[in-house]
Amino acid sequence: MKRFLLGTNWKMHKTFDEAEAYLKKVRILAADAPAFQFFMIPPFTHLQMAKEAIKDTDILLGAQNLHWEEEGNYTGEISPVWLQEIGVQIAELGHSERRQYYNENDADLNKKVKAALKFKMTPLLCVGERAGDKQFQVTPEVIRRQIKMAFFDVSVQQSQRLWVAYEPTWAIGPSGTPASAEYVEYVHEIIREQLLELFGENGNKIPVLYGGSVNPQNCVQLANCKNVDGLFIGRAAWDIASFTCIVELLKGIE
Ligand code: PGA
To answer: Which pLDDT tens digit goes with each residue over 65-124?
Structure first.
């Protein structure tokens, strides 16, 4: 059985000094919780330092995005080659903030998934419906479309490196409402079915994480949901005290 995944995307937070101090504490936290596979997704500018800060641990390092081309005239973009050079292991792709504010679309995400695979990173694909999709009950269609397009033409063999995170837009951030355990089970089952449809039995091996206002109050219930293989935590993990609290609570459910 794979270890339960626990990680955080820092978004655009933490100065260099704050990041260094935080990672020192995460090292200690992870060393004391070997049942979990930790991963950290800092901003690009902090990756090199973060790699050093988590040296000799098995904490995985991720980037928040990448460009699908190796090089070219793409001002402001980040080549997958550079990420590989740093030793980045995960490429977070399609976070709802990127879809919402930077027009990231499913066709481009397919190119990014392939670039991540080519450069030996784990694509961590974020999928999730908007509040309006939920209201009009088209969540299954939205989620299936996002997965089918992003993973189009990915082979069964390559699928073994994929991760998926279910992050409904309406659940994310300070104004978000966390999804209920019941709703998370409902959507995670749809995700699992779609992965099985694409990759046969191998679809069962792809971890599916939940993210969106995970906190000390709801983490145990969410982690206990069927088909939840990890938690992808935002603001509740950026503060080491609350992250520690979540880890301690989750230790109880092993
Ligand atoms: P949040 O962020 O936990 O602060 O809601 C989650 C995410 O965006 O991954």
So the answer is: 999 999 999 999 999 999 999 999 999 999 999 999 999 999 999 999 999 999 999 999
Cβ–ligand 1 distance for 9 under 6 Å, the answer: yes
Give how far the C-alpha of residue 162 lies from the chain's centroid of Cα atoms, to the nearest Å: 11
The answer to whether the CB of 235 is under 6 A from ligand 1 is yes
1 has a pLDDT exceeding 70: no
Percentage, residues of the chain above pLDDT 70 = 99
pTM of the model: 0.97
Ligand 1 centre to CA of 205 (Å) is: 24
Concerning whether 167 is annotated as a catalytic residue, the answer is yes
Alpha helix ranges (H) inside the chain = 16-31, 47-53, 80-86, 96-101, 106-118, 131-135, 139-150, 156-159, 181-199, 219-223, 235-238, 240-251
How many CA atoms within 13 Å lie on the side-chain side of 20? 5
32-42 confidence digits (pLDDT tens): 999 999 999 99
| Domains of the chain, CATH where assigned | 4-251 (3.20.20.70)
What would the two tokens of residue 175 be?
A: 């104004």
To test the ligand 1 pocket, which listed residue (101, 164, 172) has its Cβ within 8 A of the most ligand atoms?
A: 172
For residue 95, indicate whether it is catalytic: yes
Task: DSSP letter for 239, please.
Answer: S
